Amino acid sequence: MRPQARDEEIQRRLERILKATGWFEDASIAVNEGVVFISGRTEVDQYKKWASELAQSTQDVVAVVNRVEVGRPKHTWNFDPALASLDEMWFGLVHSLPFVVLSLIIILAALGAAKGAVRVGRLLLRRRLPAGLLREVTARMLGLLVFLVGIYITLHVSGLTNIALTVVGGTGLVGLVVGIAFRGITENFLASVFLSLQHPFQIGDLIEVGGILGYVHQLTTRTTILTTLDGNQVQVPNATVYTSTIHNYSSNPKRREDFVITVPYAVSLADAQARALQVLEKHPAILREPEPWVLVDGFVEKGVNLRVYFWLNGSRFSWLKIRSSVMRLVKRSLELAGSDQTPPDGRDRARGGPTRQVEPNIVATAAEGRLRTEAGQIAEQARESRAPEEGENLLDRSLSDPQEDGATRTEESKSLAG
User: Fold this and answer.
1) Considering the domain 7-70, what is its CATH architecture?
2) d(Cα 268, Cα 25) in Å, to the nearest integer?
3) What is the pLDDT of residues 167-193, one digit of tens each?
4) 3.40.50.150, 3.30.70.100, 3.30.365.10, 2.60.40.420: which CATH number matches 254-342+356-373?
5) How far apart are CA 67 and CA 51, in angstroms?
6) Predicted TM-score (pTM) of this structure
7) What is the spatial distance between Cα 218 and Cα 417, in angstroms, rounded to a whole number?
């Protein structure tokens, strides 16, 4: 079957079209068995491609061989291509103006709906989630979800459905990438949420975490701030606090302390135990329940070690001061037992020696103070010091305040001072 258009007809038709455009110089067309050979010169590469597409779309053309050369334009200051691009951009802008206006309206509406969702979320979660940080995060996540729905609708209305699906599907991927990039920040933030929800400690609690002993001063979204016993403030990352063993010495006000004292072999152990136990039972800061113990702990070169165990109220009294007071009084009792009834004036009559210094029979010396805990003083120092990290305290102050029992503690301590 012969082609409907002969080679000469195809040639003449293409030559007329190329000359009509005015884009080509020395343009010539040769057609052989349906194969079109295009020759000539042009200034724009796009015109060369257009000539190939034109020849390819012509009836009965089998193939196209484009030999058109693209050269530099004769007129350097030719603004026609630039003006054509600007005209095309302007047309596109005018055509997209309705979509832009509608998109802005949808985005503003989505932003307002997101803010409303955050407020509603706060109100609905106020009673269900007691932790303020967790409640705030959940409400903001709800608002973000509403805003993402608005973005999806905006892209879909603009005809960018594929991009909308990519944004929605890629949200999880973006979150994963951000989580990896800011791993430490994310871990500390999540740990702060769990710590504020689980309440392993409160403001003023004496805790030990990561080898650091101190009173809890503040919990932020990044760190837990402790005030050590020497008045320094230490910031412990929340991730470390959450994954470490927490020793809370304030959760149970009862605290047990112990110390070792050596009794010479010549002294009766039963008598020494009885005298030490008598000191513990008479001491006003020592608890009767659980009962104190005085146990034989081991043998040493100079005698037998007795380990003294006793309990105290750690929320009201300093275990360091009480331990000092008990050790001093037990030492005094054992020295009196081994001095053959040393008289009150301190003179050793059996040996005729000089006057011996006898420990005063008082619960607390001037050096030991009133034996009360120093939690209030340290908390006051923490309030007066510069905040090491700005941010909202996630701990509820109403649950624990080291100063709330200050008056009661002072009155009880006065009786201990004698």
Assistant:
1) 2-Layer Sandwich (3.30)
2) 127
3) 555 555 555 555 555 677 778 888 888
4) 3.30.70.100
5) 10
6) 0.51
7) 33
